[in-house]
Write a structure and sequence with these properties.
369 residues, alpha/beta, 8-stranded mixed beta sheet, 3-stranded antiparallel beta sheet, 13 strands, globular
Amino acid sequence: MKLNLGNPAPFDFHAPDEVVFDLRRQLTKCEGYSPANGLFSARKAIMQYAQLKKIPNVSVDDIYTGNGVSELINLCMSALLDNGDEILIPSPDYPLWTACVTLAGGKAVHYICDEQSDWYPDLADIRRKITSRTKAIVIINPNNPTGALYPREVLQQIVDIAREHQLMIFSDEIYDRLVMDGEEHVSIASLAPDLFCVTYSGLSKSHMVAGFRIGWMILSGNKRIARDYIEGIKMLSNMRLCSNVPAQSIVQTALGGFQSVNSYIEPGGRIYEQRDYIYHALTEIPGITAVKPKAAFYIFPKLDSKKFHIVDDEKFVLDLLKEKKILLIHGGGFNWHQPDHFRVVYLPRLEVLKEAAGKIADFLSTYHQ
């Protein structure tokens, strides 16, 4: 039972019919390269989406499409970092961020997200970890792996810290259209017109097309102070020629009109109901607690260290895999430094989640290290 990957396709989630129809119609017109930063129609639609999100000072030329967001994160870190430069990254994080910073010669400095405060960033910890070498702060909102959604007040305080120390803000918002319980997603860039911000999103999760590899980034705010950096981004973008053109061709369709994902995240929808089930099922197991996710596909439960005596969380997930054939990811895989968490993906159908929860409960009834 694969409860480890946020890839919707294996769990019977499919692209909206309208997206597939338009892709077929446009395929023969997508055989050549596009401009390096992307098709005009795609960038125009993303610019208008940025306007709806109240992201300031964005033109069509401030949009770059990528082969997923991952490529663009790597590009941005390569353009920014010299050896020893520091980037503030949340813990737990999506580990690609730490990897890209390290690959570019930088140092990932992890600030704590506080489980006792719904996994919101610990602002005091952020302040403690800023040095003269700190270039930027990363936020992942909605968050992977915790499913947290940051309220406007928390985002405003992060902006205040970034403003005080003149930090760039990189905001990974790939799950911004997968928010439940009537909550609102706020783009941090909308609160920081005087700072330089890069906002990432895409269609992989919201439109269930992870394999299409279509993401984007939006440069906003005070671009004057980042003029040289933006030139570096342009150079690296030009070097890889362009991103996947067929996938770019459906961005305009995907971002306009009726959004089919809404039916998944409302009461009665698959993602909503599977989220509710796994939260209640896991927290009913003795020795497990969890914060209920408000967005995305993930929950990040905590194991009672006294009850289970777990000193190696990777060993825990391997033991579970060997005995019950259930695959999870240990907390250390997300740069969480205590061996007391694991991530569950709740994309599988309810009957699979029910079987998995039963097996996890049975496994933990006797497990200790």
